[in-house]
């Protein structure tokens, strides 16, 4: 099983919760990295988002965004497991 990287812009609305603590407790193989800027100017002020293994994940609410992030993490793990299985 590989590692999953979740990148968070410190200006993103998703930082209203502790994404790092939540995801790293739920998924030990996940690394959450908070950056000053992820170069998606303006998106961070409009809606919560993160980048999971290079793919931009966003939603209207923080809760919905977290659900999409979890789905992407589990999908990526399933792909890795099937490839190595």
Structure description:
The protein has a domain at 1-58. Helix content is 41%, strand content 24%. It contains three helices and four strands, in the order E-H-E-H-E-E-H. A four-stranded mixed beta sheet has the order 2-1-3-4, with helices on one face. The longest helix is centred in the C-terminal third of the chain and has 23 residues, at 62-84. The mean pLDDT is 86.
SSE order and pairing:
Layout: E1 4-9, H1 19-26, E2 30-35, H2 43-46, E3 49-52, E4 55-58, H3 62-84
Parallel strand pairs: 1-2
Antiparallel strand pairs: 1-3, 3-4
Structural class: alpha+beta
Task: Summarize model confidence as the mean pLDDT.
Answer: 86
State the end-to-end CA separation: 10 Å
Number of helices in the DSSP assignment: 3
Q: Which percent range describes the beta-strand content? A: 15-25%
- Biggest pleated-sheet summary: 4 strands, mixed
* Oligomer class: single chain
Q: How do the strands of the widest beta sheet line up side by side?
A: 2-1-3-4
Number of strands: 4
Radius of gyration: 13 Å
H/E series:
EHEHEEH
